[in-house]
Design a protein that fits this description.
Blueprint: E1 6-9, E2 14-18, E3 22-26, H1 32-38, E4 42-45, E5 48-54, E6 61-70, E7 76-81, E8 86-91, E9 94-99, H2 104-114, H3 128-133
Parallel strand pairs: 1-3, 2-9
Antiparallel strand pairs: 3-7, 4-5, 5-6, 6-7, 8-9
């Protein structure tokens, strides 16, 4: 396992994890494996669960997070994220938010530019004051 980015105590509603990062959640209840299954995790091997998300425009599935259950009484979760950002359920009552390495502001700007929607946000044209200052009447 790689370096842990953050350590959390079980019981929060949302656990933040950076893109391609890893977090550790301690103090999990003994029923954590059942909770992972109820949250639609697939058990890959003993103590290892994965969560996949299907693409909207195809039948392809992408692995989002991998959870490894560790500890003597299965009380520790190691959660590893891939490069898919967003929010997925960890248990029926908690979720994991995979945050991008760059700020959301830049992602939205890039998305608007790609879909040619940022032109309504950016200024285009000549200010009205420039017309009026040259004795031009509209």
């Amino acid at each position: 396992m790689s370096t842990v980015d953050e350590v959390y105590e079980y019981g929060q509603d949302t656990f933040n994890i950076p893109e391609r990062g890893e977090i550790r959640i301690e103090g999990c209840p003994s029923s954590i494996m059942d909770q992972l299954r109820r949250a639609s995790f697939t058990q890959e091997s003993p103590g290892v669960f994965t969560k996949s998300q299907e693409a909207l425009d195809s039948d392809q599935e992408y692995e989002v997070v991998t959870v490894t259950v560790d500890g003597d009484d299965n009380e520790i979760l190691h959660v590893e994220a891939t490069d898919i950002v967003g929010v997925v359920s960890l248990t029926p009552s908690a979720k994991v938010q995979v945050d991008p390495k760059i700020d959301w502001e830049y992602i939205f700007d890039m998305l608007l530019a790609v879909y040619d929607q940022n032109r309504s946000i950016e200024y285009h044209g000549i200010p009205l004051q420039d017309f009026l200052s040259d004795d031009i009447h509209l």
